[in-house]
Prior knowledge:
344 residues; 2-enoyl-CoA Hydratase, Chain A, domain 1; Immunoglobulin-like; 2 domains; 6-stranded antiparallel β-sheet; 5-stranded mixed β-sheet; 20 strands; globular
Amino acid sequence: MSSSTKMTFHLRGNGGNHAAAEWIAAEGVIVDETSDELEAFLKSFGHAENPGGWSVRFNSPGGSLAGGLRLGETIRKLKLDTEVGGTESDGIHWKRAPGRCASACSFAFLGGLSRYVAGRELGVHQFYNEISLRNPSAKIFSSLDMSEHQFVSALLIDSVFRMGVDPRFVSAAASTPPSEMNFLDEQTLDSLKVRWSPKEFEPWSIEPRGSGVIAITRSKDRTKTATFACYADGIPRLTIEDQHFDQIGIEWIKDAMKVIAGVDAFDLHFSKDVLQFGSLNGAPVLQFALRGVDGRTIASAKWPGVSVDGPRYMCSGFTYEVPRENAEKSIAIALKNCIDGKQP
């Protein structure tokens, strides 16, 4: 990637049969028109916003600060996720490669609903005037310049805050000279909420339910709830309540379930009969009857989640990854204290 090439967008895929198998490769320098070009790119596929599962994968040295802020706003409007990395061909498909997102790109990155970046991949520094960078001793600042400087600082703080990121992100940038770059480490990315997975579940805990106990975990944005419990028949059941069900439609779920070939859960395979769709306390839920599964199974699984065998278009609606943290202890308590409540 040339450091002077204007940012371009390309839809790439790794050939996989899952929601994140395709992404938008965004490589090059951000200019003032980049946000409009991304919107036009998405519309060229017949979409007014994210069709589901797409993220913008940035590999950019930065560019226009105003362009970066606008691009971040557009990404949020289009309901896209963001990540950092390059994209290269493996001869047949495309795969993730090393990449970085720096300067103005870092503000564009914050627009993602979900944001993934590894340590030392996202770089920040002070915004600056080109003339002052070329000649630091030049007498170019007036009272109007200082007023504009304060206005830009306030604008950055407001933008960062609205994206759900800790405003200290702006301080991290302001404390780094424009001639240098501060690539944020893992701890900083998490503490400032730069790296953010709103759909990610929090650690398991336990709650009383009826005459027994359930293990429960909720997503950070509170749109999804997963519970693990056993009923009178003693069969462990994972129940998923997801606000997304209302968006994709109950009839769509029912029709999709007719073509499911089986269920994969925590490195185990089950027949499709273990999955049921019903209602619990008035809310639509998916329930997986997972005989032989307990907290230890979940904690030790290579991939701690459930999914279905079926066409690619339906996989995201039936795929859930739950946390390993506290799984063994919380679920053990739930399975020793079965509830007598209604099953969906």
